[in-house]
Design a protein that fits this description.
Layout (H helix, E strand, L loop, with lengths): L11 E5 L5 E2 L5 E6 L3 E3 L6 E5 L4 E6 L7 E3 L5 E5 L11 E6 L4 E3 L9 E10 L13 E6 L2 H7 L6 H15 L7 E2 L5 E2 L5 E7 L10 H13 L21 E5 L11 H10 L1 H11 L4 H8 L4 E5 L6 E5 H5 L4 H45 L1
Parallel strand pairs: 2-11
Antiparallel strand pairs: 1-3, 3-8, 4-10, 5-6, 5-9, 7-8, 9-11, 12-15, 12-16, 13-15, 14-15, 17-18
Helix pairs in contact: 5-6
Keywords: Membrane, Transmembrane, Transmembrane helix
């Protein structure tokens, strides 16, 4: 048997990716091949991925987290899950460590040596097609846990200071340039009195920065899997991992500079013809609805899918009707504008009856002359 001394561990044959290999956010597994069968050992040990420049933890997994491991039947291969936010900084170096006694021999029940820092080094690649000028800002929501929500409105707590601390903590852990993070709206209470806080991620201003949708994806993954990420410590531990980061809206700079015309506009009209009819009726009461109807097809928005692989384009209407406040808008329309619609329709019917009357009178006169 040929031994590999690269890992300073005679029991490790190879790893994928290997030492000094290139990784990126699509690297979702680490694989280790052993020379002898192994099993998981001490619950207090861990496999940890660090950022080399500041030794900050990206993710850390203990032997009790069985959902993150897959051991082959012969005990010679182990696959470790890596979430997509782990290798998220272009050109950054990372290293993987394995604590002693994380594994033990399957045949002889003795703890095995791990891999210490500075050996299993990996480097994130740098994409060539990133363009900061095509980026758009994102507004999303995070939700506090029930316990954190109760403390949030306690009289002795300063809500503004808390939100600033939360943004500071998020900026350090994702990481995000702090100047790109803000919270412009007041927090809201939702079901079970849990607090929802809106967070805005501004567009990238430099080509080497990750765009807003990528950062939103990173934040969502880190909250979703916060038990293995640094989100589980500090102020960010107050975030509800079952809610992660929900997209609210993405701002668009182009506005009406890029209207949908021709076949695209025709397709939009066909798809939303029922809604178009409603707006046409509402135009009777307020010409502002004509402006809304005119501009709606001209805006494209994004949403982030549940697995946050890549943002997918959707029409503004497909998203806006997911927001509960739109119900209130139509409720207001129904009770405030419907009477005006009835009046206008009544006037229209009256005018039609008058026209019909004069038309019938005119026909009668013509007949009498004959």
């Amino acid at each position: 048997m040929l031994l590999n001394f690269d890992y300073d561990n005679l029991f490790i044959n190879k790893t994928i990716p290997s030492i000094n290999d290139v990784v990126n956010s699509s690297t979702t597994f680490l694989n280790i091949t052993f020379n002898r069968p192994v099993v998981l050992s001490a619950a207090t040990s861990s496999i940890t991925i660090y950022k080399a420049s500041d030794n900050k933890i990206r993710q850390s997994i203990s032997p009790t987290m069985y959902d993150y491991f897959d051991i082959s039947p012969d005990g010679l291969n182990i696959s470790i899950k890596v979430i997509k936010s782990t290798f998220n900084e272009d050109g950054e170096k990372y290293f993987v460590t394995i604590d002693n006694n994380f594994f033990k021999g399957a045949d002889w029940d003795e703890p095995l040596k791990g891999i210490h820092d500075g050996i299993w080094i990996l480097e994130a690649d740098v994409p060539n097609d990133r363009k900061s000028n095509s980026d758009k800002a994102i507004m999303g929501l995070v939700r506090l846990t029930q316990a954190a929500s109760k403390n949030f409105f306690a009289p002795e707590n300063n809500q503004s200071i808390y939100i600033e601390s939360l943004l500071n903590d998020i900026a350090k852990k994702v990481p995000i340039n702090r100047s790109r993070l803000s919270s412009i709206n007041k927090p809201q209470k939702l079901f079970q009195d849990q607090i929802v806080i809106p967070i805005r991620i501004d567009a990238a201003t430099h080509e080497n920065e990750r765009n807003a949708s990528e950062l939103a994806s990173d934040l969502a993954y880190m909250i979703m899997f916060k038990n293995i990420t640094p989100i589980s410590s500090g102020v960010t531990n107050d975030l509800d991992q079952t809610y992660d980061f929900k997209l609210l809206v993405i701002t668009i700079d182009k506005g009406i500079k890029d209207p949908d015309i021709g076949e695209q506009f025709k397709e939009w009209i066909k798809k939303y013809r029922n809604l178009v009819v409603i707006f046409i009726i509402l135009i009777i009461t307020d010409f502002e609805f004509l402006v809304i109807l005119k501009d709606i097809p001209k805006y494209k928005y994004f949403k982030i899918s549940e697995i946050f692989d890549q943002p997918e384009q959707i029409n503004r209407l497909e998203y806006i009707f997911q927001v509960a406040i739109i119900c209130g808008a139509f409720f207001d329309i129904a009770f405030r504008n419907i009477p005006q619609i009835i009046i206008q329709v009544s006037k229209y019917l009256t005018l039609c009856n008058i026209c019909n009357y004069f038309y019938s009178q005119q026909c009668s006169v013509k007949k009498s002359r004959r």
